[in-house]
Structure formats: C-alpha cells, structure tokens
Design a protein that fits this description.
Number of domains: 1
Strand order of the largest sheet: 4-3-15-8-9-12
CATH topology: Fumarylacetoacetate hydrolase, domain 2
Strand content: 25-35%
Distance between the termini: 41 Å
Order of helices and strands: EEEHEEEEEHEEHEEHEEHEEEE
Oligomer: single chain
Radius of gyration: 17 Å
Bound molecules: manganese (II) ion
Shape: globular
Structural class: mainly beta
Length: 238
C-alpha cells in the first residue's frame, strides 16, 4: 500500500497497547488464545486433566478493550463469562519455533480477559460449532499494558486473581498452567507463522462465571499489575 492509493472506505485503525515505562506502544497484529490450560478449569468445564492437544483459537485484533474501558454486553448471549489470563506479546516469531528458543521471541507480558459467550443464543451448541461466536465478538479482548521482558523477566509462577465487584472469583497461580509459555509458542508456530505484534492469551484458571451490566472486573497478576474493565449496557438494546 503506497500513499498515493485511494482507499474506498476508511482504513481500519490497528489497535495498540501501552508499554509500561515507555512512550512507545505495542501494535497488535493477531490475538491467539489457548483454552483448557489449567486443570481446575478443565474440570469445571466437564473435562479431564490430561495433556490433550491444546485447544487454540483467535480473536480479531480490533476486539481489544483497554484498561479502564467498557465491554458492552454483547448480543446473542445471556451467559457472558470472564476468563482472566496471562498475555504474552511477541517481538518476533516464524514457523517451527522450538521450546528452547521460544522465550527469545517474547517482547513482554501483561494481563488480559478472554470474554466468552458461554451460551450462544439461537445456535446449536456443541463441539462441532466453530468458536468464533463464543470467543471472537466485538470487545471480547480486554488487554492491560505490556510489561517488557527486560523489566519482569518471564513470569512462570505467581498469583493470578480476578475480582468481580470486589469479590474474589478466580484465585490461582501461573505455575498451574498445563502448557507452559514455551510449549504454547512452539505448538502455535507449527500451524501459524508468529509475527511481531502477535499476542497470546494463555488460558484461564478455575472460577469462571457470568457477569451483567454494571459489574466491575479487576484482574491482577503478580508482577504484571492490574486490569480493570466494566461491563456496559447491551450493545444492542433489547
Ligand atoms: Mn480462555
């Protein structure tokens, strides 16, 4: 795309995330997600605790909601859930990254919430249904600021907690991730060329639950600060 080309409609704006301690911002290319990555959450969803092949999906980059922002209650569900997760932000990538090399491709870490339509109204449910309706809707990706590896290292343990209106709902530890960050990157890169700007949501611990307009969600991860979002009025009035 050169500057003398005329666009027929307004160019989409690429979302960016703030970087703690820097004026620069982190451009978001793609949002990859890993599901069922804490045993207690696998169990609460009715599964077992084996290291089955990790469940992988994407959200659109423009689903990002910033710290302090609002998630309008989406249409098509009466069962909107939060899933607090650690976010990995990539500075480089490619295909076929080895677990041993994976950490060298990470720019930083942060906190995110994988907002989920646990129930999709008007749609047959079940494993054969593509996950876009459950996971890839507008405003489904609240993301906090990025903490550079240079400042926080590579968090692999530490508390991960979410409160709804001041009441603890999720309270676990990063060390309980089934698939560790290097394994997640290695596995994703078998199927996708990871690139600078990609972020990865690494799965949620147990305690997921439904929220309603007015609820305030505060997620914290040890060394990665906090992320606050409010559930807003319905995006589509009833
Ligand atoms: Mn999730």
């Amino acid at each position: 795309m050169t500057s003398d080309q005329t666009l027929a409609v307004a160019a989409p704006v690429r979302p960016t995330l703030p970087i703690v301690g820097s004026e620069a911002r982190f451009p978001v290319r793609r949002i990859y997600c890993v599901g069922r990555n804490y045993v207690a959450h696998v169990r609460e969803m009715g599964g077992d605790e084996t290291r089955d092949f990790p469940l992988m999906f994407q959200k659109p980059a423009d689903a990002v909601v910033h710290d302090g922002g609002t998630v309008p209650y989406p249409p098509g569900t009466d069962n909107l859930h939060y899933e607090l997760e650690m976010m990995v932000a990539m500075k480089s990538g490619g295909y076929m990254i080895s677990p041993e090399d994976a950490l060298s491709h990470i720019y930083g870490y942060g906190i995110c919430i994988d907002m989920t339509r646990r129930t999709v109204l008007g749609s047959p449910d079940g494993p054969r249904i593509p996950w876009e309706l459950k996971k890839a809707f507008d405003h489904s990706a609240p993301c906090g600021p990025i903490y550079p590896v240079a400042d926080v290292g590579h968090p692999s343990s530490g508390s991960i907690r979410l409160e709804v209106d001041g009441v603890a709902r999720q309270d676990s530890d990063l060390s309980l991730m089934i698939w560790k960050t290097p394994e997640i990157i290695a596995t994703l890169s078998r199927f996708f060329s990871l690139e600078p700007g990609d972020i990865i949501m690494t799965g949620t611990p147990s305690g997921v639950g439904a929220v309603v307009p007015g609820n305030v969600l505060v997620g914290t991860i040890e060394t990665l600060g906090s992320l606050t979002v409010t559930i807003g009025e319905p995006a589509v009035p009833a």
